Amino acid sequence: MERIQRNIIGIDLGTSNCAVSVWRNGQPILVPAADGNNLTPSVVGLDDDGHIIIGHRAKSRLTSHPHLTIASFKRYMGTEHLFTLGPHHFRAEELSALVLGKLKTDAEVFLAQEVTEAIITVPAYFNDIQRKAVKAAGKLAGLKVERLLNEPTAASLAYGLANHSEQKFLVFDLGGGTFDVSIIDMFEGVLEVRASSGDIWLGGDDFTEKVRQWMLSCKPQLSDAPSETLAELARLAEEMKCRLTQHPLASCSLGWQGGTLEWELDTPTFAQLCEELLTRLKAPIIQALHDAQFSLASLDHVVLVGGATRMPVVRQVVARMFGRFPRSELHPDEVVALGAGIQVGFMLEDKALDDIVLTDVMPYSLGVNVARQYGSRYEEGFFLPVIERNAFVPISVMKSLSTLHDNQQQMDIGIYQGEARRIKDNILLGSMSVPVPPRPAGEVSVDIRFTYTLDGILEVECRVAGEDTMSSLIIEKVPGVLSEEEIHQRLAQLAALKLHPRDASVNRQLLARASRRYEQFLGERRQIIDHFVTDFEVALDSQDVRAIAVARQQLEQVLSRFDDGLE
Ligand code: ADP
Ligand code: MG
Q1: Quick one: signal sequence residues (predicted)?
Q2: Are residues 196 and 210 in the same domain?
Q3: Atom 24 of ligand 1, residue of closest alpha carbon
Q4: Any ligand 1 atom below 6 A from CB of 238
Q5: CB 3.0–4.6 Å: which of 215, 239, 362, 408 could bond 403 by disulfide?
Q6: Pair 259, 306 in one domain
Q7: Residue 480 in domain
Q8: CB of 241 closer than 6 A to ligand 1?
Q9: How many CB atoms lie within 10 A of CB 523?
Q10: Span from the CA of 14 to the centroid of ligand 2 (angstroms)
């Protein structure tokens, strides 16, 4: 039988830099760009002949041609924001598609093979709309994007593969524009992201900005300098920052009005300038640990990812906070791409990855709009989470809602993403309208099921209780990213998930056994059983696999103790 060769590349599509890897001979290797560099700047520009240029060539003109060069556009993925480049107007996904196109072509030259598929990494904090935009960018670049992978998950794959023993670690990813914290649990070859948190407005570029502001404050005469001079100043600020990574002191000079302006910056002053940024690194770490219910002391490792973690001031904050030195044996700006390469290997079903199972968490809560009752009055616009932040994905959860008005003809369901109490503060993902039979208020209930897959596709199904017909909606913001056929395929995959845990036979049997015992016993033993059955039912309603397992075990223990006649 002929084996079809699939050429899949793993891509770290960063705010500042991109890197590409492939799976070869049981391990991931980096694919250098045509210019020989492992990193390709995520910069798009226009040259003097009006041609689009991408990567290092574009970045080198950031200073000289600031109006013909665009950088750091990843933050705008999934928004309507338009960038102007000479006569052209681009959305962030189109700029990303240009960069992805170059990465694809460069990889094809290096591999001497056509590349048709890719796994692209995204920050854990990217919401559904941003994830769809990344997929759309891949498609525009002629790449079939099989899967998106959270960047910290990719990094932990790169670090975790070598060691199959039990361990817990934290991935600290400070790139050019975003900060991601993830808590990873690895046991028996299963790698699990237990929680993720971060700050999408914090990165190495902000440290550069502090240096630039300091340079300006030292030489106030530059405040109304021409834009070329100010752009040159920004480039110097970046250089100074990077030099301080290697040396305790950095200096630079700039030609100005026939003379020379000079600066000298030492490490303590730099640390002082960045104090506010360094403080901001702490909150997401505390949040992630809290969400994962892990203590600092329970972590076995802290892993550094992202070029900005090269800075000693950042490493010091991490070391102080965790009381140990973080792991950084891999280049922090290549780790994510290497992890994507491992995921490529996983997809190609290479033997080297047979016992690595990947699970993930969802970074945002997903839910619907509901009304709340105040006395006899209803107030609309509240958010009811259906799948909560940091739930394990893939996941499928059901909630029931009742009608609000007499003879209501339909129920309008808005689907939102976010953490706020009111829907107006969350992001609207889609909406659907479910016809309901006209009855008195509260008599008709609609079951709403949310099913969320590993690559961030949300399916919402609504069924009027007692009826067979079902309305369903796939939240896929960018039209045409999924073909009809792919949607059917995905639906088939999802079908396996849709059993409520209450209906799983092991849980049903245990509940039946407990209620038999409850009926048999009296007094204290009856109360104890009642207590543990209630806990188990609450866990079943939460549809959280872990909580169910814990509550089930407790109830089982109590029942066996009573069965053994020990009490
Ligand atoms: P992203 O993932 O956002 O594309 P990277 O991981 O490539 O970003 O990190 C880019 C950031 O790392 C930039 O802000 C850059 O200034 C910073 N950086 C790279 N090398 C160094 C260095 N030697 N010292 C300090 N900062 C660095
Ligand atoms: Mg990155």
Answers
A1: none
A2: no
A3: 242
A4: yes
A5: 408
A6: no
A7: no
A8: yes
A9: 7
A10: 5
Pairing between strand 88-90 and 83-85?
antiparallel
Ligand 2 is an ion; its neighbours by CB within 5 Å are: 14, 175
Question: Structure tokens of 101?
Answer: 């196109």
**Domain count for the chain:** 4
Same domain, 20 and 81: yes
What would the two tokens of residue 370 be?
């509901």
Q: Which atom of ligand 1 is nearest to the CA of 241?
A: 25
Q: Rounded to an integer, what distance in angstroms lies between the CA atom of residue 10 and that of residue 269?
A: 39
Q: Which of 221, 198, 218, 222 is nearest to 210 (CA)?
A: 218
Q: Are residues 316 and 339 in the same domain?
A: yes
Whether the CB of 123 sits within 6 Å of ligand 1: no
Amino acid at 256: W
Indicate the top mutation candidate among 42, 241, 246 to test ligand 1's pocket, ranked by most ligand atoms within 8 A of CB.
241
- The verdict on 176 and 60 lying in the same domain is yes
pTM for the full model? 0.68
| β-bridge pairing 52-54 and 69-71 | unpaired
Same domain, residue pair 190 and 214: no
Atom of ligand 1 minimally distant from the CA of 238: 16
- Is residue 491 a part of any domain in this protein? no
Whether 93 and 176 share a structural domain: yes
SS3 category, 204? helix
* Residue 264 shares a structural domain with residue 301: no
Tens-binned pLDDT, residue by residue, of the chain (567 aa): 444 567 899 999 999 999 999 999 889 999 999 889 999 999 999 888 888 899 998 998 887 888 899 998 998 888 888 899 888 888 898 999 999 999 999 999 888 889 999 999 998 767 777 888 899 899 888 899 978 888 888 888 888 644 556 788 899 999 998 898 988 887 666 667 778 788 878 999 999 999 999 999 999 999 889 988 988 999 999 999 999 999 999 999 999 999 999 999 999 999 999 999 999 999 999 988 988 888 988 898 899 999 999 999 999 999 999 888 888 889 999 999 999 999 898 888 754 554 454 556 666 788 999 888 777 778 888 899 998 877 777 778 888 899 888 998 999 999 988 777 888 877 788 888 899 999 998 899 999 999 887 666 788 999 988 887 778 877 754 332 344 454 455 445 444 444 466 656 577 778 878 887 887 788 888 889 989 998 998 888 887 777 888 899 999 999 988 877 644
Q: Which domain holds residue 434?
A: 364-475
Q: Is the CB of 177 under 6 A from ligand 1?
A: yes
Last residue of a domain, one of 231, 250, 276: 276
Domain containing residue 425: CATH number:
2.60.34.10
Residue 28 structure tokens: 């991931």
| DSSP of 295-331 | -GGG-SEEEEESGGGGSHHHHHHHHHHHTSPPB--S-
Tell which atom from ligand 1 comes closest to the C-alpha of 245: 24
Q: Is the CB of 242 under 6 A from ligand 1?
A: yes
The residue from 317, 344, 361 where one domain ends is: 361
Residue 176 Cβ < 6 Å to ligand 1 = yes
Does ligand 1 have an atom closer than 6 angstroms to the CB of 245? Answer: yes
